[in-house]
Write a structure and sequence with these properties.
single chain, mainly alpha, Four Helix Bundle (Hemerythrin (Met), subunit A), 6 helices, globular, binds zinc ion
Amino acid sequence: MANFTEDQLIQLKAALHKRYLELQCEVREELTHTQDISNEELIEYLNHVPDDIDTALVDRQINEMRELEMSMRYLSELEFGDCIDCGNEIGFERLLAYPSAQRCIACQNQFEKTFPKESKSSL
Ligand SMILES: [Zn+2]
Protein backbone atom coordinates (compact mmCIF):
# COMPACT_ATOMS: atom_id res chain seq x y z
CA MET A 1 0.00 0.00 0.00
CA ALA A 2 1.13 3.50 -0.78
CA ASN A 3 2.59 5.45 2.12
CA PHE A 4 -0.22 7.64 3.36
CA THR A 5 -0.37 9.35 6.70
CA GLU A 6 -3.32 8.63 8.96
CA ASP A 7 -4.66 12.07 8.11
CA GLN A 8 -4.37 11.52 4.35
CA LEU A 9 -6.18 8.20 4.63
CA ILE A 10 -9.05 9.83 6.49
CA GLN A 11 -9.31 12.50 3.78
CA LEU A 12 -9.21 9.95 0.98
CA LYS A 13 -11.79 7.76 2.66
CA ALA A 14 -14.09 10.75 3.04
CA ALA A 15 -13.56 11.73 -0.61
CA LEU A 16 -14.39 8.19 -1.75
CA HIS A 17 -17.58 8.02 0.26
CA LYS A 18 -18.66 11.50 -0.79
CA ARG A 19 -18.16 10.74 -4.47
CA TYR A 20 -19.99 7.44 -4.08
CA LEU A 21 -22.99 9.10 -2.47
CA GLU A 22 -23.01 11.79 -5.16
CA LEU A 23 -23.10 9.14 -7.86
CA GLN A 24 -25.83 7.25 -6.06
CA CYS A 25 -27.92 10.43 -6.02
CA GLU A 26 -27.25 11.08 -9.70
CA VAL A 27 -28.26 7.57 -10.66
CA ARG A 28 -31.38 7.75 -8.51
CA GLU A 29 -32.38 11.08 -10.02
CA GLU A 30 -31.87 9.90 -13.57
CA LEU A 31 -33.76 6.67 -12.97
CA THR A 32 -36.64 8.27 -11.13
CA HIS A 33 -36.89 10.75 -13.98
CA THR A 34 -37.78 7.99 -16.37
CA GLN A 35 -39.58 5.55 -14.08
CA ASP A 36 -40.97 5.13 -10.61
CA ILE A 37 -38.33 3.27 -8.73
CA SER A 38 -38.14 2.43 -5.06
CA ASN A 39 -35.01 2.38 -3.00
CA GLU A 40 -34.97 -1.42 -2.95
CA GLU A 41 -35.36 -1.54 -6.70
CA LEU A 42 -32.53 0.93 -7.08
CA ILE A 43 -30.20 -1.19 -4.96
CA GLU A 44 -31.25 -4.27 -6.90
CA TYR A 45 -30.64 -2.37 -10.11
CA LEU A 46 -27.17 -1.29 -9.03
CA ASN A 47 -26.26 -4.82 -7.99
CA HIS A 48 -27.57 -6.56 -11.08
CA VAL A 49 -27.87 -4.15 -13.94
CA PRO A 50 -30.33 -5.90 -16.24
CA ASP A 51 -29.32 -6.39 -19.87
CA ASP A 52 -32.73 -5.54 -21.24
CA ILE A 53 -32.80 -2.01 -19.85
CA ASP A 54 -31.08 0.81 -21.64
CA THR A 55 -28.40 1.73 -19.13
CA ALA A 56 -26.59 4.23 -21.34
CA LEU A 57 -28.09 6.97 -19.23
CA VAL A 58 -26.39 5.82 -16.07
CA ASP A 59 -23.57 3.70 -17.46
CA ARG A 60 -20.91 6.21 -16.61
CA GLN A 61 -22.10 6.57 -13.03
CA ILE A 62 -22.48 2.81 -12.57
CA ASN A 63 -18.96 2.25 -13.86
CA GLU A 64 -17.51 4.86 -11.57
CA MET A 65 -19.43 3.44 -8.62
CA ARG A 66 -17.94 0.03 -9.36
CA GLU A 67 -14.48 1.60 -9.33
CA LEU A 68 -15.21 3.38 -6.08
CA GLU A 69 -16.43 0.13 -4.55
CA MET A 70 -13.17 -1.45 -5.63
CA SER A 71 -11.18 1.39 -4.08
CA MET A 72 -13.11 1.14 -0.83
CA ARG A 73 -12.39 -2.59 -0.74
CA TYR A 74 -8.69 -1.87 -1.38
CA LEU A 75 -8.77 0.65 1.41
CA SER A 76 -9.67 -2.06 3.90
CA GLU A 77 -7.28 -4.56 2.34
CA LEU A 78 -4.37 -2.14 2.62
CA GLU A 79 -3.74 -2.20 -1.12
CA PHE A 80 -5.31 1.17 -1.64
CA GLY A 81 -3.31 3.82 -3.48
CA ASP A 82 -1.31 1.45 -5.65
CA CYS A 83 -1.65 1.54 -9.43
CA ILE A 84 -3.38 -1.65 -10.64
CA ASP A 85 -1.04 -1.77 -13.65
CA CYS A 86 2.46 -0.95 -12.43
CA GLY A 87 2.01 -1.12 -8.65
CA ASN A 88 3.49 2.31 -8.05
CA GLU A 89 1.76 4.90 -5.90
CA ILE A 90 -1.12 6.69 -7.58
CA GLY A 91 -0.44 9.75 -5.44
CA PHE A 92 -2.42 11.50 -2.75
CA GLU A 93 -3.32 14.60 -4.80
CA ARG A 94 -4.56 12.53 -7.72
CA LEU A 95 -6.65 10.28 -5.47
CA LEU A 96 -8.16 13.21 -3.67
CA ALA A 97 -9.18 14.77 -6.99
CA TYR A 98 -10.24 11.46 -8.55
CA PRO A 99 -11.19 9.09 -5.74
CA SER A 100 -12.03 6.37 -8.26
CA ALA A 101 -8.58 6.46 -9.88
CA GLN A 102 -7.17 2.95 -10.25
CA ARG A 103 -4.00 3.87 -12.12
CA CYS A 104 -1.15 6.32 -11.85
CA ILE A 105 -1.14 9.11 -14.42
CA ALA A 106 1.39 7.37 -16.69
CA CYS A 107 -0.60 4.11 -16.79
CA GLN A 108 -3.89 5.95 -17.19
CA ASN A 109 -2.54 7.75 -20.27
CA GLN A 110 -1.31 4.45 -21.65
CA PHE A 111 -4.67 2.82 -20.89
CA GLU A 112 -6.59 5.56 -22.66
CA LYS A 113 -4.39 5.15 -25.72
CA THR A 114 -4.91 1.42 -25.72
CA PHE A 115 -8.64 1.40 -24.93
CA PRO A 116 -9.99 4.78 -26.02
CA LYS A 117 -13.59 3.52 -26.06
CA GLU A 118 -13.66 2.13 -22.53
CA SER A 119 -12.08 5.05 -20.79
CA LYS A 120 -13.86 7.94 -22.44
CA SER A 121 -17.41 8.77 -21.56
CA SER A 122 -19.94 8.75 -24.36
CA LEU A 123 -20.81 12.36 -23.81
ZN1 LIG B 1 0.97 2.84 -12.99
